[in-house]
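Deliverable D2.4 — example input (structure tokens):
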């Protein structure tokens, strides 16, 4: 009996180490495409404080869970019939029942939302399982000031039509049009602290690089590197930067590319997620700009970013 027990423990140990694939062994394709993001949230949220005829309030950020005991999936002004109802709402972690009149219910759709959207940059695609990562930071719905959970989400390619240049104290941004008339290119499964993650659903897009080795922060060097992004139409380009401060999980850089500085003033909104390459290795993704010094940017290491991707 003792011999069988020892054998079983050794077998489990060997099996674990045979199939565990270290992060360092991964190769990812750095992308750089501008993308449009659409997230469906699990509930409708109230956008403003609303005083009802009953004297009760709907408060901003209230989640509408049920109407007359029925879970709310879709709500529009055209949905008949409207009658006085009871809303079950969640506020501050607690549930409340609120009476609402038929006329108030009919016009409620103007003051609620269950979707949020935005633009950013596609960071990578894993050619082995077609999973992707993008943005390098979590999506925040600014009208509600929340980090929405994902019910489901869609990813579309976008095309840059105009650039608002960054200036000290005044962040610039990309003006883009989403290609939503085309099929969605990916599903969104997670909205995490270091980006959005999901499955790529279309043939691989053209990229400037083949799958590249990824490296840890301690292996990143100060000095020249390249940022991959799009600043015109759907053309993906690489631009020179200089990495100047590195930690285990993040690093900072300065934009040195003259053409990029002339076009954008440095880092602009919509560049979040742009891949960064150094010495033909995939090192990270843009996450933030320095508002007072838009030629300076911050990035997350790619190893740290993929740690937060769904397993």
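Example output (designed residues):
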């Amino acid at each position: 009996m003792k011999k069988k027990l020892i054998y079983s423990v050794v077998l489990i140990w060997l099996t674990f180490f045979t199939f565990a694939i270290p992060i360092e062994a991964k190769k990812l394709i750095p992308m750089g495409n501008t993308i449009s993001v659409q997230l469906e949230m699990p509930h409708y949220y109230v956008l403003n404080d609303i005083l009802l005829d009953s004297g009760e309030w709907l408060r901003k950020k209230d989640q509408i869970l049920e109407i007359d005991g029925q879970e709310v999936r879709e709500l529009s002004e055209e949905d008949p019939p409207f009658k006085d109802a009871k809303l079950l709402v969640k506020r501050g972690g607690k549930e409340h029942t609120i009476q609402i009149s038929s006329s108030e219910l009919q016009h409620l759709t103007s003051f609620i939302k269950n979707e949020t959207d935005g633009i950013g940059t596609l960071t990578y695609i894993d050619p082995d399982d077609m999973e992707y990562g993008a943005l390098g930071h979590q999506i925040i719905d600014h009208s509600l000031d929340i980090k929405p959970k994902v019910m489901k989400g869609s990813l579309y390619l976008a095309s840059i039509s105009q650039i608002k240049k960054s200036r000290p104290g005044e962040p610039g941004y990309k003006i883009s049009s989403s290609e939503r008339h085309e099929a969605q290119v990916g599903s969104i499964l997670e909205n995490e602290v270091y980006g959005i993650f999901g499955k790529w659903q279309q043939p691989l897009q053209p990229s400037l690089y083949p799958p590249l080795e990824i490296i840890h922060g301690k292996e990143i060097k100060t000095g020249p590197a390249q940022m991959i992004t799009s600043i015109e139409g759907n053309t993906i380009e690489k631009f020179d930067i200089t990495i100047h401060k590195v930690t285990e999980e993040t690093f900072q850089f300065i934009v040195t590319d003259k053409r990029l500085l002339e076009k954008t003033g440095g880092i602009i909104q919509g560049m979040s997620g742009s891949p960064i390459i150094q010495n033909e290795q995939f090192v990270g993704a843009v996450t933030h700009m320095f508002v007072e010094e838009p030629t300076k940017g911050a990035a997350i290491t790619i190893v740290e970013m993929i740690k937060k991707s769904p397993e």
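The domain at 43-113 is CATH 2.30.42 (Pdz3 Domain).
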